[in-house]
């Protein structure tokens, strides 16, 4: 019996190539097959982070996901990618799937994991997630002591967003994108604009941008963006 | 004028030495002064993660924090540590402060940051946080699509914990420690035991332990532990 390969879901962090882990580096440079999500109209963000580590003899499997807002037949795309990856694993080749940030924190890797983890050895390599990177770039401690943190994707309804923001000391609204002006208005109506920051593409050289939410204006907001609200509640501090 | 040093708050991840970032590795091995929190009765966890990278000629500044549950005069301890670190910075030496997980995610580094960041250049190196590591070890996708995540420290009151658990799709209860049996009872009373997992010291060689919450029993629970509740709500999936 020949050896069957292992599937690695590898977090490549928020954007800076040197914010990947030593384990991720060892795996990426050690395997012969690398898969990653990619849009149908441009470069793969996950691949771009580790582009300097990819060799000409790496077999690359881009998983092309149409970047439309309407629903799309993603199941077929992941079925096909899983089959292609499975063929490499069957042939004894380990496969690394590159994942922006952390593989299991709002990552698309779970769709491959769902399809493959019952049939193959699968290891997840956690990565630096974007909220921690944004907090680092802003120089603002995210949560401390007994703070409650809520992480809420921007597409949620206004009422639900308000409830989560009021229940937590700190709220991160993820994937702001086309919801930006609605979020800005909602935060303003809650009187929290002065306690909120905006961050996009954190740690990505030449693309990173952060500002107080009050200064966002009508800037176009990409998908990889977030709003961090730190309410001035009774947060414990040692002074 | 001689150059003034830079203060680096460096996340060293959840426990495995190879889950530190390339940037953390470069800084730790590049500076001459390293500070880290340490208990008064044993080894520093943060230092233990990178012990293999510390040289005999590294100047080490342990910040000894008494591990009592009662309040303690932490302000004086951080004042003194900040003064000691400041003296190295004034002398032109960069200083790395080692932080378990991520520096700004429930980390004590903020107490040094509060004292020093107005006076010295300060850079934060984000790290892999323990919830992402636990999710990786358990092989359970943490959050996806439009899931709402709550992170709640265990010392919170039962009513508040219940409210946060019910408001979110996924809840992480951090720093379970001596609150374990209360948390187990609360989750059971909510009928969520079968949707909960327990994780301690994830990715630490020889010390990691995870199990379904139902199997925790009367196991002693350390401070570095968490309960993850993933409610079977209408969480979106691509199947």
Q: Treating each run of at least 4 consecutive H or I residues as one helix, how many helices of chain A?
A: 7
Distance from first to last alpha carbon of chain A: 64 Å
Q: What pattern of helices and strands is seen along the backbone of chain A?
A: EHEHEHEHEHEHEHEEE
Largest pleated sheet of chain A: 5 strands, parallel
**Strand percent estimate of chain A:** 15-25%
- What is the topology, as strand order, of the major beta sheet of chain A? 3-2-4-1-5
What is the topology?
The structure is a homodimer of 239-residue chains.
Chain A: E1 7-11, H1 22-30, E2 33-39, H2 45-49, E3 59-65, H3 74-90, E4 95-99, H4 109-116, E5 122-125, H5 130-138, E6 149-153, H6 158-167, E7 170-174, H7 180-189, E8 196-200, E9 209-212, E10 225-230
Parallel strand pairs in A: 1-4, 1-5, 2-3, 2-4, 6-7
Antiparallel strand pairs in A: 7-10, 8-9, 8-10
Notes on the protein architecture:
The first copy, chain A, has helices spanning 22-30, 45-49, 74-90, 109-116, 130-138, 158-167, 180-189; strands at 7-11, 33-39, 59-65, 95-99, 122-125, 149-153, 170-174, 196-200, 209-212, 225-230. The first copy, chain A, has 239 residues and is an alpha/beta fold. A five-stranded parallel sheet of chain A has the order 3-2-4-1-5, sandwiched between helices. Chain A has a five-stranded mixed sheet with strand order 6-7-10-8-9, sandwiched between helices. In chain A, helix 2 links the parallel strand 2 and strand 3 (59-65). The radius of gyration of chain A is 19 Å and the shape is elongated. The mean pLDDT of chain A is 94. Chains A and B meet through helix 1, helix 3, helix 4, strand 5 and helix 5 of A and helix 1, helix 3, helix 4, strand 5 and helix 5 of B.
